[in-house]
Amino acid sequence: MAEISPQEFRHIVARIEAEVGKYIVGQQEVVRHVITALLAGGHVLLEGVPGLGKTMLVRALGRVLDLRFARIQFTPDLMPADIVGTDILEETEEGRREFRFQPGPVFTHLLLADEINRATPKTQSALLEAMQERTVTVANRSYPLDPPFMVLATQNPIEMEGTYPLPEAQLDRFLFKINVTLPSTAELVEILNRTTGEAEPELNVVANGAQVLAMAAVVRQVPAASAVADYAARLILATHPTSDSAPEIVRRFVRYGSSPRGAQALILGGKVTALLEGRYNVALADLRAVAPAALRHRILLNFEAQAEGISPDQVVAQVVRSVPEK
Questions:
Q1: Do the domains spanning 6-79+108-211 and 223-322 agree at the CATH topology level?
Q2: How far is CA 111 from CA 23, 46, 105, 257, in A?
Q3: I need a labelling partner for 267 at 20 to 30 A (CA). Which of 158, 162, 233, 323 fits?
């Protein structure tokens, strides 16, 4: 695997964003966070109402990076075997019958779990091992997934009809949760111009799987000073209502705060952000830049918060403001 310099890292990411931008109008922050999560070796949960281009974004990324792409449409009748695969009974040339593993769509590079919260919790949980261990176990046999492997799940807002809340253990395995918002008037006009004519934008391949893995290796090499790790730890502890450092909004409205995976997401996201800013060290500002995406799905609010209309983003913003840098 050829090594990639920090300068080349930034250049490749800029080209990826430019190519994806041919297909996706606006949503620069969403695209940046998805690429950040990919290079950090994590998974992404995209939340937004239907029709905002979430599926198009994942398809475009697969084409630009020349990665295998699979899509699973999650429905209430979807079964775990429809995701991971199953053993099928076959007759061999010698006339004997034996089981052969038939891989499911999870055996890919980019897995689009479309409308993941329309499936039952049992089916949603079929992705847990694949997301954490990068393996799939069927009938007591484990099968490795080829790297790079990334789950990009889309979900409709939880208040929409026919949705099941994702289990907390599943949510925690997503490095980032990204909110996809409505386009502006100018962006909507550009979307109409691009999608209602004859021509479709042509996307060029910018990188491949080996280069993505090399870039991910560069991310892991970026140093994070002890003060940065300490700041990340204090941010996480401040999301817990029982912590002495928790601000008032956390004590009043939060049931459970972030797990240690939240701190890992802050550091890894901060390393990618530092590289994209032209630095080879993580600054506290890099952690603050990714804090909403890294923590919003890891904070469980209580009923009072729901009654008062308090959002996880408001809690994260207050935590970031309240935790001192030193």
A1: no
A2: 19, 13, 8, 28
A3: 158
